[in-house]
Amino acid sequence: MDDIRTKAGFFMREVLLIIGTSAASVVALFFLTKLLGYRQISQMTLFDYIIGITLGSIAAEMATDLETFVQPLTAMVVYALTAWMIAVGTNKSLKARRFLVGKSLILFDKGVLYNENLRLAKIDIQEFLIQCRNSGYFDLNNIQTAVLEPNGKISILPKVESRPATPQDMKLTPQQEMLTANVIVDGQVMAENLKHCGKDEAWLQKQLSAKGITSAKDIFLATCDSQGKCTVYVRMADRCQIDIFE
């Protein structure tokens, strides 16, 4: 009986130790990520990506190492400080930035696909076309220049005749649009968002009834803009079977 109690006590101590080290690794990752800045999330370079994976791996080791957490924590701090110093250095030196971060690469220009640059970028033609479509260009004839940026994204300059006309082109001064609020998300009414728009659930139900919808549960997404216009997207059980991109 005493042996069972001893084992149970040892097991509970291990569990509590793992909980403590896991919490400590999460806290350490939070502060180190704040040190690196939001670029670690939104504008990751190749080096940022490597550092991020390494920090996550060390944090996992720190959470499960029951003997010590000083060494993994020290390694995390060293990696984070190294990334921070490199970020400072690349901000001050163009040569360092080009060496460590990379430089832009033209993939398409004036109707010419530069297959050698695609090869250097490790991008095949299908991936290039996918990124063009993600940017809203389904026809290369509408593109003047496509440039691969150091963060892995492709920037596209449209042909002047293909770019959208702007109010400035037509000498118009339209009213500034404001943010659109989500008032129903996955069948759930967002009461606070409705209140922010100056609307209530009675108004929302009236909008739904006008569109022949009886329940918010049937709606995947509904939005309300600054003009009070309600746009509704109902749930669709059917899949889109069109496949013309291969």
Structural commentary:
The protein has helices at residues 2-36, 39-42, 46-64, 70-92, 94-100, 115-120, 125-134, 191-196, 201-210, and strands at 105-109, 112-113, 143-148, 154-158, 181-185, 188-189, 219-224, 230-234. The protein has 246 residues and is of the alpha+beta class. The protein has a 4-stranded antiparallel β-sheet. Strands 6-5-7-8 form a 4-stranded antiparallel β-sheet. A hairpin with a 2-residue loop joins strand 5 (181-185) and strand 6. The termini are far apart. Mean pLDDT is 77; it is low at 38-42.
Describe this protein with a few key phrases.
246 residues, alpha+beta, 8 strands, 49% helix, 15% strand
Give the overall pLDDT as a whole number: 77
Tell me the β content: 5-15%
Distance between the termini: 68 Å
Radius of gyration: 27 Å
